[in-house]
Design the sequence.
């Protein structure tokens, strides 16, 4: 009936399969790729791909069973099961493995479809001389089902973490290469070492002013850490401890370069640090062909913005290829969030598995590793260890407040710099527990210092202090999580400029300032918090060692819900502080107290035990654990109109796209692109806050909400939302 067989509207079937199969693929992976789409050889699918309105176009199920028919004598039962699941679900998400073990026996063979596939396969060279299409399925299915069903019933744990990692590797290889070929129409060539990483790095760092003592100390730290790595190049997992402001980001890049990577993935906990890191790397490599990509919810994946890099095709902006490259870590250096990494490792959506493929042979740098929830830390470390063993992935864990790393690793830290660095001391005055004491101290410090930082545990606390200080001091700013990303960055930029000009600045902030924000205050105040948070705040005080030793004053709790925010971590911190012989800690002694703090945490919390989930390959259950820890169900995202009638114009553009005569996929891409243009005006607020502001529906349903520009002064760019008085506690 058909002279040519297609896999996609513009791609011959044989071309699609040939391009997917890579030279380095194992025999099993090659076989999976070879048969994963063979169900497309039915007459109905070939009519559908040519534009006919055909309902019965499903091809995954029959492809999976044909794979079993043809390969039953070649692979083990476990390999056959993994291949079957990979093929049957290559367009969907992965459920717990017992679902497939139960359902594998329910297939009823369609003889007509099988005959059509056999007839059409004769036109494709790779399928000629296959004489096992007619192998009886029943015995094969029974063998696979019984093998694993009996073990699960008897609780003999048929699987392990190794199987979990290997299945992710198998499935990710299939879905990544399938999507890659469909988009790029080319082979996914084996990754090569990134060239010239060291050349541009040296050109950048050689420009540093060596007359400055802080730059000399940073260079010394970088030299020692790099030398420590060179003596341990045979290892795969490295720990790198460094004080705040010592230059860990550049040092980790230097170490990653020494590893001669095929890909680097930088993982950071907050989007503002991602922007900062992206800007640094972009500056280093702006004259090169090295592709720097950032991947987080704020970034538009349809645009790869490397300015004048010649390797970027400007005509492909807003295309599926850019989106695929961005969201799946397709650059040479990729900067992303902890969220993206964890779902790539533990999520069960098809898109999560696509990311996993890029972890193979990569160098993954985890910055601020202490920010990983204690309940997830050990499962995360375990899977990192298996990735390093199975897929040659290398890891660098770094932090100023390093938690206990309970897997085999190599410590390449330079601890000598802690002795040299004594930029601040922590002064504990926990008996001070009144708002007015905080206010009086801010005023007192501002009289003798040009820049003062005050960090508290809640947004409402920060706002109360801000309002009470507003008419008493000059240069007052506030920073917290209920400002839009655009306004937050604008405030940080204004503060940085004032600090450089030695103008008066007092910043009232929540934890938003803690990790990675490159601001340098002369003195600070911190509401009592977990020890790691206190140290992170201290990293914004005398950061560049410009003056003699400064102070971070730690006062007692004034926020109503500190215990709810931090839980047992406050108690653990008090346990550590009991070992103090005086009421202050110098920076050069911080590491000792940090070790005690994380030792206490480690002995009292071993985290969630994933072994039971691995034993049954419960992908969906593991993914739901990620949802529990990463989703903000108590928060709602809304948009703040940045100027008069901004969203009226937005709606007009939206409607124009809806009414365009273009295909569904292009329409979806253009709408997504449009939505990304307003994401910087978004803010996540609590349900309690949303009850106190006047909101409007942005589109025709109530899924997207916004606050009007200057609407009854509800939101101010320099302050955030004005609550009703009864909510503003």
Sequence:
């Amino acid at each position: 009936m058909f002279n040519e067989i297609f896999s996609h509207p513009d791609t011959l079937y044989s071309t699609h399969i040939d391009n997917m199969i890579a030279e380095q693929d194992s025999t099993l992976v090659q076989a999976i790729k070879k048969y994963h789409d063979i169900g497309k050889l039915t007459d109905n699918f070939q009519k559908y791909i040519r534009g006919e309105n055909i309902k019965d176009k499903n091809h995954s199920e029959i492809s999976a069973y044909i794979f079993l028919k043809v390969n039953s004598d070649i692979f083990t039962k476990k390999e056959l099961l993994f291949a079957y699941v990979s093929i049957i679900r290559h367009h969907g998400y992965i459920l717990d493995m017992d679902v497939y073990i139960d359902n594998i026996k329910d297939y009823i063979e369609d003889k007509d479809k099988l005959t059509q596939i056999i007839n059409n396969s004769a036109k494709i060279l790779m399928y000629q001389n296959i004489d096992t299409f007619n192998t009886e399925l029943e015995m094969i299915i029974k063998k696979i089902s019984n093998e694993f069903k009996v073990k699960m019933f008897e609780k003999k744990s048929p699987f392990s973490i190794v199987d979990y990692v290997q299945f992710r590797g198998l499935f990710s290889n299939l879905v990544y290469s399938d999507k890659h070929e469909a988009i790029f129409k080319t082979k996914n060539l084996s990754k090569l070492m990134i060239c010239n990483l060291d050349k541009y790095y040296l050109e950048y760092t050689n420009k540093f002013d060596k007359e400055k003592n802080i730059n000399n100390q940073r260079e010394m730290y970088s030299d020692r850490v790099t030398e420590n790595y060179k003596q341990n190049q045979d290892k795969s997992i490295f720990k790198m401890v460094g004080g705040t402001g010592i230059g860990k980001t550049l040092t980790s890049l230097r170490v990653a370069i020494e590893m001669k990577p095929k890909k680097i993935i930088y993982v950071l906990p907050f989007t503002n640090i991602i922007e900062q890191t992206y800007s640094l790397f972009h500056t280093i490599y702006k004259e090169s062909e090295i592709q720097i990509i950032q991947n987080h919810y704020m970034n538009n994946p349809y645009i790869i913005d490397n300015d004048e890099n010649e390797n970027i095709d400007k005509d492909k902006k807003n295309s599926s290829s850019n989106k695929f490259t961005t969201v799946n870590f397709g650059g040479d250096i990729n900067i992303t969030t902890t969220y993206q990494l964890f779902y790539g490792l533990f999520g069960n959506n098809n898109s999560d598995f696509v990311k996993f493929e890029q972890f193979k042979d990569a160098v993954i740098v985890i910055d601020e590793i202490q920010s990983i929830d204690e309940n997830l830390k050990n499962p995360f470390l375990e899977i990192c260890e298996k990735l390093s063993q199975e897929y040659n992935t290398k890891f660098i864990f770094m932090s100023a407040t390093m938690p206990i790393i309970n897997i085999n690793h190599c410590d390449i830290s330079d601890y000598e710099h802690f002795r040299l660095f004594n930029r601040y001391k922590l002064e504990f005055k926990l008996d001070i527990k009144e708002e007015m004491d905080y206010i009086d101290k801010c005023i007192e410090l501002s009289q003798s210092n040009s820049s003062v930082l005050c960090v508290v545990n809640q947004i409402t606390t920060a706002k109360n202090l801000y309002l009470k200080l507003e008419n008493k001091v000059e240069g007052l700013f506030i920073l917290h999580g209920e400002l839009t990303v655009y306004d937050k960055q604008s405030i940080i930029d204004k503060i940085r400029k004032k600090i450089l000009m030695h103008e008066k600045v007092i910043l009232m902030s929540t934890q938003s300032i803690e990790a990675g924000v490159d601001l340098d205050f002369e003195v600070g105040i911190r509401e009592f918090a977990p020890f790691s948070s206190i140290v992170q705040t201290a990293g914004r005080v005398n950061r560049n060692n410009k003056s003699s030793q400064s102070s971070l004053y730690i006062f007692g709790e004034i926020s109503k819900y500190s215990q709810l925010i931090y839980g047992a971590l406050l108690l653990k911190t008090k346990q550590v502080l009991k070992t103090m012989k005086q009421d202050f800690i110098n920076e050069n002694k911080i590491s000792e107290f940090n070790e005690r703090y994380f030792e206490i945490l480690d002995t009292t919390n071993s985290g969630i035990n994933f072994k039971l989930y691995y034993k049954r390959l419960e992908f969906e259950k593991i993914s739901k654990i990620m949802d529990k820890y990463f989703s903000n169900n108590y928060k709602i995202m809304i948009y703040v109109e940045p100027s008069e009638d901004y969203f009226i114009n937005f709606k007009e553009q939206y409607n124009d796209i809806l009414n365009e005569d273009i295909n569904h996929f292009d329409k979806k891409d253009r709408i997504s692109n449009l939505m990304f243009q307003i994401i910087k005006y978004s803010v996540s607020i609590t349900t309690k806050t949303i009850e106190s502001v006047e909101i409007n529906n942005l589109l025709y349903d109530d899924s997207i909400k916004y606050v009007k520009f200057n609407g009854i002064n509800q939101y101010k760019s320099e302050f955030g939302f004005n609550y009703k008085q009864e909510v503003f506690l």
Residues 246 and 550 are 17 Å apart (CA to CA). The domain at 197-417 is CATH 3.40.50.300 (Rossmann fold). The chain has four domains: 6-184, 197-417, 422-578, 632-721.
